[in-house]
Amino acid sequence: MLNCIAVDDENLALDLIEDNIQKIPFLNLVKRCKNAFEAMEILQNQEIDLLFLDIQMPGITGVQFLQSLPNSPMVIFVTAYKQYALEGFNLNVIDYLLKPIDFERFLKAVNKAYELHNLKQKSNLVENVVEPAKPTTIFVNADYSLVKLKIDEITYIEGLKDYIKIHLNSSTKPIVTRMTMKSIEEKLPSLEFFRVHKSFIVSLDKIESIRNLKIKIGNAQIPVSESYSEDFFKLIGQ
Predict the structure, then answer these.
(1) b/e for 13-25, b at 16 or more Cβ within 10 A?
(2) What integer pLDDT is reported at residue 87 of this predicted model?
(3) For the chain, first and last CA: distance in Å?
(4) 33 within 8 A of 39, measured Cβ to Cβ
(5) Among the listed residues 50, 44, 45, 46, the one whose alpha carbon sits nearest the alpha carbon of residue 7
(6) Prediction pTM value
(7) How far out from the chain centre does Cα 72 lie?
């Protein structure tokens, strides 16, 4: 439903706009206004989606009123004067209707406004989607306890049959835990860690150099196997 107001100094014009609005199920007329000052009061106190605005009005014209609005709703100019069409275009109005208003032309204009409103709503929904927080820690069983590890401290992981060694840059002693390589791989952020060998997973951020299919991380030389090398080098852009 689009909440709208009609602004015109002529009662006959307001009657026609109101009659047209009542025929369209997605429009809700909040108020008829005889001048821009009445309309301003409504805009300050209510959420208005669409404004039907006459141009030639006493006191302040529709163009001047629209230019004064810091955050304007969608606007359809309704006027008896063709010469303001270019000015309306420059003000990004939805449409420009000439009096007397033909209902089919009116319907086309409000359909355009309705489609634009729906596009904005969808865009806002996408912008407001909150991405799940990236995990910063994991827990593993080690020394008969659940040990919390900071993901950004992991340099590489080494597989040893039913056990793995988790090497950390904060400790010279690796964490040893009974766990498969597949299980630990599933716990780690896929964009930050990569399996380069059936027995090794590396932190991409901790790689210092690569030479002859050997990755240097600190004092360790980690092999890159042929079966993983193509995907690995694609990932790092080589």
Answers:
(1) bbebbeebbeebe
(2) 66
(3) 53
(4) yes
(5) 50
(6) 0.54
(7) 22
Residue 83: what pLDDT?
74
Cβ neighbours for 202, distance < 8 A, ≥ 6 positions apart: 155, 156, 157, 193, 194, 196, 215, 217, 222
Q: Convert 96-132 into a string of H (helix), E (strand) and C (coil).
A: EEECCCCHHHHHHHHHHHHHHHHHHHHHHHHHCCCCC
| Exposure string over 50-71, b if 16+ CB within 10 A, otherwise e | bbbbbbebeeebbbebbeeeee
Pairing of strands 193-197, 175-178: unpaired
Matching residue, tokens 């429009």: 27
Domains of the chain, each with CATH number or no CATH:
2-127 (3.40.50.2300), 137-235 (2.40.50.1020)
The dihedrals phi and psi of 143, each to the nearest 5 degrees, come to 55, 45
CA 201 to chain centre: 33
Q: For the segment 135-189, what is each residue's pLDDT rounded down to a tens digit?
A: 899 999 988 889 999 999 999 999 998 899 999 999 989 999 999 999 999 899 8
Residue whose pair of structure tokens reads 């199920």 in the numeric block:
25
Question: Taking all residues of the chain, what is their mean pLDDT, rounded to a whole number?
Answer: 89
Residue 225 to residue 47: CA distance in whole angstroms = 62
CB burial class (10 A; 0-12, 13-18, 19+) of residue 229? Answer: middle
